[in-house]
Amino acid sequence: MTAGVEQLEFQAEARQLLDLLIHSVYSNKDSFLRELVSNASDALDKLRLEALRNKDLDVDTSDLHIEIEVEKSSRTLTVRDNGIGMTRDEVVDLIGTLARSGTAELRQKLREAKNDAASEELIGQFGIGFYSTFMVADEVELLTRKAGESAGIRWTSSGDGTYSIETVEDAPQGTAVTLRLKPEDREDQLYDYTAEWKIRELVKKYSDFIAWPIRMQVEQFAPAAEEGGQETVTIETQTLNSMKALWAKPKDEVSEEEYAEFYKHIAHAWDEPLEIISMRGEGTFEYQALLFIPSQAPFDLFTRDAKIGVQLYVKRVFVMGDCDELMPRYLRFVKGVVDAENMSLNVSREILQQDRQVTAIRRRLTKKILTTISDLQSTRPEDYRTFWAQFGAVLKEGLMSDTDNRDALLRVSSFASTDTDEELTTLPEYIERMKEGQEQIFYATGQSREQLLKSPHLEAFKAKGYEVLLLTDPVDEIWVSSVPEFDGKPLQSVARGEVDLDSDDEKSEAEREEQEKDFAELLSWLKETLSEQVAEVRLSTRLTESPACLITPTFGITPALARMYRASGQSVPAGKRILELNPKHVLVTGLQHAHKDRRDDPALAETAELLYGTALLAEGDVPEDPAKFAGMLAERLARTV
What we know:
The strands form four sheets. The chain has a nine-stranded mixed sheet, covered by helices on one side. Helix 1 runs parallel beside helix 4, helix 2 (31-53) packs across helix 6 and helix 9 (356-379) crosses helix 10 (381-395). The protein contains 21 helices and 22 strands. By secondary structure, it is of the alpha+beta class.
């Protein structure tokens, strides 16, 4: 019995994306079965866990399994499970739409993908593996009933931009996905996916390690009992996978291909793992762990709801996915499983937060991952560069929160520098190159390397041969205030506090004292004239070419950091900065002479405003009143024509 059929449309972006998926040609169409089996396995895990937690749930968990059914005559293939199932809202949310965060970005990247492999990686990266079914099917039907619910849902789509959804009263518990396969004679159909040998091959290759039995009915042929008789055919149900947990096997007994497929299963990813970490804890806290560092960052890595990628098992029984308690937030890109020996199956997240065993496992896993990254850095530099390009920004989040591992994090971090062109450098390498007598690690923060290299804050440092680290990730603005030093060398911003690069030069010191006397009146007048914008005006030792720059006080908040706080809803008090002047620049010396000769001239105040505005522009910022600044500048230029 069914209720009325409702015909719905995919959202506009989703229709375009689906069209790209269906009409593009991928080199590995086989992966559709892996995606369906992986989803079925997740559904079974969730049902067993829910049955443990909810004793009132009336479900039979004695024979949880996945079933593959093929029908050659109608060219259909069905992957069925008796797992948790889905409600109507869950179907519409998870299956009926593709309009998740990043859809527009994925659509653009798919268009730009240069080959099939790149397209496949993008599909997995954006978490839409279910739609790989349309690579091999003209129509997809999903029939599901949530455990504990009385009615089920049927979802059907031909990938033409619409889908139908209806309530089904007599649906079995779990989920069945049925594919009406494309004609066998299609040029882009490399294999017949109703063939027993092909199904066996795909399950063995992609899903042999799945913890649940994957069953299929197969024909068994027996020879004739006597000469001239007919052979007999019987139908037999066979389990196609070994169900052996890879993390429980010695590493030398598992192939790289098996590890890669297991990674793709638990991560729902299409990329190859960059590194495999297999470890075992013995003694008080016994556990086994199999972790993977991906080679490709997922699209939601920096979204608020990005999940930790580690699953918790207890004695090979799935207990929890996305287990935040097993991995610090800054390692959320790591995927894998942890199988604990001495823990309750009915454990909650609240209990895990207080569990000494979980805390100890988390600490050991974290140290092992950081050691692995360090090994990549020293022995496989190309792989390390891939890792850093994908995950460096998120790893640096740990510099703010993980004080126990801060030194290890700093050592595996890489940064752009004024001395290394496009290559990155580490802090130990920077220290090795430091000038004689240099006591500080100099750095600059900004939006890009190109912008920072043009910054007036770097002029004296470049002129005197001091190397400056160029930090361009948004997180850099935050962690530098949490890290005072590395290997005894303080970190010093080139745009914060006072910097004296000639502190041991007596001649320079005498020259500065003389300049302070000459410019004292101008500095005092500028401070008064710009009192609403700046806290202080002083002469600079940083500038060699530009007339002025703005400096954040030693304990002040940089404008970029203040903007980040405000964007997150936090109130930040307005802080004034320091205006530094280049005493050798013609504009500054001209302003000094003009102030002595005609200090009451209103045009001087306008020049002061323009000087302050150009200092803002030079660092990539804008004046508080851009229209006013533009008007003053246009008027001043008009006088020179």
